[in-house]
Write a structure and sequence with these properties.
Blueprint (H helix, E strand, L loop, with lengths): L6 H13 L5 H13 L4 H12 L4 H21 L3 H6 L3 H8 L10 H14 L4 H7 L1 H8 L12 H23 L9 H9 L5 H15 L5 H5 L4
């Protein structure tokens, strides 16, 4: 960020970008890149995110949390912790705002859950912090009475939402396959390995044997594993 950047001017510009935000990757990255360029003013820009989030429309709130996701990913790459540190204590409040208890906001639950799962995979926040913040999502999922009826959305609203969801999902799919350049060669394997449940000899060996027999039925599996059916 240039030293002559004026905090008040940056706030106005950032708010303007947020108010023009849409679901396209270009729009989301434009806002996130501005936040990173001016990260010395992270406290001011973060307050703009929260301010706009809590007064935005249903769709706009979801777009804003995707902006936050883009900011966090960029922060990880540049080793800047400012935005994550500011967000951490407010995370339950943020998630509650995105899935606010009104008829239309329940449609934000699946996308918000995908974002939360993405943050778990990337290690953006500690697991216990994310689990606490997920409570509003679980409450909305379990409450059938909050599901919006057909009268809540017009056909045009539904089609526009479907198109915007496709745009938002593109970035998450891309992020899944992007690995940090500085990580070890075995990092991806270790991630998968750590996500697998521990071996249960009483169940897993039998299942492994059944799979082996189906794949190579004529191999002498009994002699290899001393397995008796």
């Amino acid at each position: 960020m240039a030293e002559e950047s004026d905090p008040f001017e940056c706030r106005l510009t950032f708010l303007s970008l947020l108010q023009k935000l849409n679901a396209s990757q270009q729009s989301i990255h434009k806002v996130a890149n501005y936040a990173m360029r001016h990260r010395k003013l992270s406290e001011d820009l973060y307050s703009c995110l929260i301010e706009e989030l809590e007064q935005a429309s249903t769709n706009a709130r979801l777009n804003i949390i995707y902006v936050m996701d883009a900011i966090f990913s960029a922060s990880q790459k540049s080793k800047f912790a400012g935005y994550v540190d500011l967000t951490r204590p407010d995370l339950p409040r943020i998630i509650h705002a995105v899935v606010a208890k009104d008829a239309k906001s329940v449609v934000n639950v699946p996308n918000t859950q995908k974002i939360m799962n993405h943050w778990k995979r990337k290690g953006i926040f500690d697991i216990h912090i994310l689990e606490e913040a997920e409570k509003p999502l679980l409450e909305r999922e379990q409450s059938s009475s909050n599901k919006p009826g057909n009268e809540s959305f017009s056909k045009q609203d539904i089609l526009r939402r479907m198109e915007e969801d496709r745009e938002r999902h593109k970035r998450i799919k891309e992020e899944i396959w992007i690995r940090p350049p500085e990580e070890s060669k075995n990092a991806e394997f270790e991630d998968f390995w750590n996500s697998i449940d521990k071996l249960n000899p009483e169940v897993d060996y039998e299942q492994m044997m059944l799979q082996n027999r189906q794949r190579l039925p004529f191999y002498a599996w009994d002699s290899v594993f001393n397995y008796t059916k």
